[in-house]
Amino acid sequence: MTNLRDEGLQVFRELLPGVLPDGPNDQVDFGADGFAPELMDIGVESVFGRLWTREGISRRERSLVTLGILIALRASDELAAHFKIARTNGLSDDELAEVIYHASGYAGFPAAATARNVAARALAGE
């Protein structure tokens, strides 16, 4: 049987190197003492463990889809991480800018402008 948490943590480490400590996956603690402590585990298992491990499209393509959705949702916190993930998955800064430009026509200028600001901060910090 597949352990979605372990697979999700492995993918998370590959997509965002250095964010999680190396070591046994069962020792990664996302703040179990805080409010809604299981939320990050649910995300690691269902998003990174189940979706990012699928073979149907490449990680690069998954990044493109994810960015488009997050831009439309104006999900700024998640966008910051996913612009970095997109770079890890091989997208250039010019390609990331094109994603933002393209999203302006479908998600609206304010959503694209927010994404541009998030990307500028997130990518400058690398």
TrEMBL record:
GO terms for MF: peroxiredoxin activity
InterPro entries per record: 4CMD/NDH-1_regulator, AhpD-like, CMD-like
Domain Carboxymuconolactone decarboxylase-like: 37-120
A Pfam family that the UniProt record links to this protein: CMD
Protein name: Carboxymuconolactone decarboxylase family protein
Species for this entry: Mycolicibacterium hodleri
